[in-house]
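Handoff note, outgoing to incoming analyst
You'll be picking up this chain. Sequence as last confirmed:
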Amino acid sequence: MKMFKNLSKIIVAMVIFALMISCKSGSNVAKGTAGSVSNEKPKYVFMFIGDGLSHVQANAARVYLGNNTVGEVELANLAFTSFPVNGIATTQDSTSFCPDSASTATSFSCGVKTHSGVIGKLVDKTKDAKNLSEYFKEQGWKIGIVSTVTLNHATPAANAKGDIVWAIIEQDKDGKIIFTNMIDHYRITKEIILFLCFAILLLLVSGFTGFRTILSFIFTLLCIWKLIIPLSLKGYPPLLISLVIGNIIAISTILLVAGLKKYSYVAILSSVIASVVTGIVAIIMTHYFKIDGAVMEASESLLYSGFQHLNLTQIFQGSVYLASSGAILDLSIDVLIHYRKLLFTGYTLRLVSVPFLYKKSCV
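Most recent structure output, in case you need it:
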């Protein structure tokens, strides 16, 4: 045991020594002590942006961590408050003393003031403002953006110029843009290419059955796009709509793939029963765990887009069922396959609803 302890100490010492050597050997690492500024070229540059973080929040943390002994009251230093150079930036934009994330993120990344709700544009809202990422890329630096929020938040978006995105644009009666909210990256072109590759492989492997499967995929997409989403946005019960249309999709898929056969009806029955059970469990669990639906990624954008009347909890329940519907359909197809095997091998399948009380032959 003593030998292992000594060995572990040796390994730790070697790691520390290697780290010290690597730090000293980096010729581009800025060197200096507190209160001094180095002129050497840095190897890395980090820009941290804390949401809503200003002098008040930083000072509150320093007070909390500081010394409050009588006669020795002193603020604690945070990592960034001990930097040798500090600066102050005003927070108002060109239109408001209480700006939003879009204009303030533009100030951080581009160094210019602009309108609330505007990203990467000058005050005239027509000319582009170059951000820090673009400047560094032109000088040969590699840029990386890490964010704890999605693209519909303006802060990372202000530093990622050049991406094509989905956006909600609100205009007045004259066509003037008064509000813009980014939703997500635009991926339709890539998704179409991926689907075409999948469809070709499916046709090569499965033939006409694959063609019917592709029709079921297209039917599913149209049902979600043209029925579930529009009806939910109009205020109809999202879970009920999802259950009804989801079962229509499942029934259509089973009939397209297997045809009008006895085993198809068994698979349809299993799918409907599993769907109803899933909906009931979704209702019970969302209430039990007190999940209100605001945890959904797009809920903020949905409310900001003028749909404050929607019940996010019911939408969440509907999304739980839709997320499970693929697995339900897979299991139904498994039931279909196994039931068909039993019929083709000559076995008699019995459905038992209550053990020892009710039995009915299906063949």
